[in-house]
Model the fold of this input.
Amino acid sequence: MNGQVIRTEEALVSAMESIHLGIFEGIKAYVEGNILGEGPLNIFCWKRHVDRLFRSAAVCGLKIPYSKDELLEATKRTVRANGSKANVYIQPRIWPKVAAPGQVYVVIPVWPFETLLGKGNPRFSKERRFMISSWRRVASDALPPQAKAWANYANSGLAGREASRLGYDSAIFLDNRGFVSEGTGACLMTVREGKVITPPVTASILESVTRDMFLRFLPEDLGIPAEVRDITRVELYASDEAFLCGTGGEVTPITSVDDIKLGDEYPGPITRRAAEYYSEILAGNVKKRKDWLTSV
Ligand code: PMP
Done:
């Protein structure tokens, strides 16, 4: 926190701060060679995440008092200080100090997580029932969905609570035009007739790192065509497969939307193939994509 490695219970932000003005990033580091095992860690797409952190800061009027290289060094130090040998989630958080205009808190918490990915992982194929939220995704003329600002997650929280109150696992947002937007914390991809389709950035989505990487490797490495275009609610209901992709959700297959079952097979074949290949990239087993990883 602000340049020092300290214990979590000492990483304090004053209760008088306006914490809704903060921003953050969600980054993961995976074990080299076998993401279900233990060993040296590699951060996935560090540069893209840190670039987005600086863009989020610019949008929200925050000045980060460290260089991108200093943040990478601080992140590596924190992961090492935790003695992490298995996969870790890294969540840099930045808040303005209201009493000291222009100054910020910079905190980089790190904690272990359980992956859905990796060969034979039973968590991947668990059934997941989604609903279309009655809450619309925040429009970009109200809050900046393209930036990773904490305030946007109040919208996600409402949708998540509604889904759980009604007995669903999670929710998918429509945007303010009525087109499909994204999940509460991940981007949506549908599959129709062998093609992956995902909504554009103008559909009030976060500019997702994972989505960008999928849009590259699906066609380039797997020969699966991928298209960016608006998706209607009805098209989503009538898709062959759908999944969420994101740092936190990794690849999360969707069984049904509003109790309408998607496709014949769950998880669908393209969802499985994309998830398996993504796991290999994360483990550093795909030579061509090794430069997407930064060793800790
Ligand atoms: N949308 C939202 C609302 C998110 O919180 C996330 C997770 N950061 C994503 C999409 C996926 O973004 P990324 O691939 O960069 O993790």
Q: What stands out?
A: The first helix runs from residue 46 to 59. The chain has a mean pLDDT of 97.
